[in-house]
Amino acid sequence: xxxxxxxxxxxxxxxxxxxxxxxxxxxxxxxxxxxxxxxxxxxxxxxxxxxxxxxxxxxxxxxxxxxxxxxxxxxxxxxxxxxxxxxxxxxxxxxxxxxxxxxxxxxxxxxxxxxxxxxxxxxxxxxxxxxxxxxxxxxxxxxxxxxxxxxxxxxxxxxxxxxxxxxxxxxxxx
Length: 174
Known about the structure:
4 helices
């Protein structure tokens, strides 16, 4: 004779577990976005400051100064535009990943509530584990997007810095 003990879990408990998982995934995504934004901002500030300093030292006439400053501003504007588009893309990706994660967790929660035995619940553990693994993968995707954004947004500023170094090199050689 088999003695099977039934375990019941309330719908509220499952909902809390699902919400906690979604909250953790959202927290990872937000922290990753914040880190990437701070890094990109610090890189941009350093490069703009260096380009501005170089502009002040390299300009000998008003026309040269205006031309040099305009090029710096254009590079900063282009970098800012790239950054804003990238942040928007990351936000869209984050929202999509959060929605997908929530939907997957809801499916698992429904299966969990429909379970009739401990064995059924134990079988669902793989689904919960897959959900956590997906959250980690999604967090990595967002992190990668942020790193690529920082790299791409810094290209116009780096290009401008290279031009500035070339100007200084000519001035020193002369």
